[in-house]
Design goal:
Number of strands: 8
Shape: elongated
Oligomer: single chain
Strand order of the largest sheet: 2-3-1-5-4
Order of helices and strands: HEHEEHEEHHEEEHH
């Protein structure tokens, strides 16, 4: 009986040791896999950032037109916009006429009564695009036959999503009367006491009052 008990204990101890070895091997393998996953996540993030940067750069010459009635551009959107923009923005005599590479509506045609689809226009010359956006900011109220039209930079989807996260903060900044904007692609710039401050931590800014953040930043 004692011999049988000894053999049982010996077998149990050997089984425990083997189990510990297997657990240790699995833990080692998990550590290796964890390192590989972290490396892949970093590489994936770097590739995503590069893709967003490439898409952003490819849209630098674009402007998104919102509110322009469907069909206002006629059969030749480029010619219509080249002429209408200069007049609507009071750009006066230009050194060279505006030249668009292409222009088109975005998305499927909507039902009658729905808001018009946005229109994307691409300038052949980046400087002309900048001049149009500057004129639009100066003009403020842009009209087509007494209908309000708005011009925006054409942003990559991911950039637009990231900038949307600042909506709460930007609403507070407007209430405070603080001048603000974006440094491409998603850094928030705020002018406070004649100094420009840069923020890139969205979650932190959305939880606090911008005045507190700026006071901390200037401390």
């Amino acid at each position: 009986w004692e011999t049988k008990t000894y053999m049982d204990l010996f077998g149990a101890e050997r089984g425990r040791c083997e189990a510990e070895e297997r657990v240790s091997a699995v833990e080692d393998e998990c550590c290796v896999l964890k390192g590989k996953v972290e490396d892949l996540e970093k590489r994936n993030k770097a590739l995503e950032d590069k893709l967003v940067d490439m898409e952003t750069r490819s849209r630098l010459n674009n402007i998104r037109v919102v509110g322009l009635p469907e069909g206002a551009e006629g059969p030749d959107p480029c010619s219509f916009l080249e002429n209408w923009l200069a007049d609507a923005l009071d750009m006066g005599p230009l050194r060279a006429p505006l030249v668009l590479e292409r222009a088109h509506r975005v998305g499927p045609r909507r039902a009658t009564g729905d808001p018009p689809r946005p229109l994307i226009m691409r300038f052949l010359n980046y400087k002309q695009k900048v001049a149009v956006m500057n004129a639009a900011r100066k003009k403020g109220d842009i009209r087509y036959k007494n209908i309000n039209v708005r011009l925006y930079n054409d942003l990559a989807t991911e950039v637009h999503k990231q900038r949307k996260q600042y909506d709460t903060v930007r609403a507070q900044l407007r209430r405070l009367g603080l001048r603000h904007g974006f440094r491409p692609p998603t850094k928030l710039l705020v002018t406070y006491k004649e100094r420009t401050h840069t923020f890139d931590n969205v979650s932190q800014e959305n939880k606090r009052n911008p005045r507190e953040i700026l006071l901390d930043n200037t401390a």
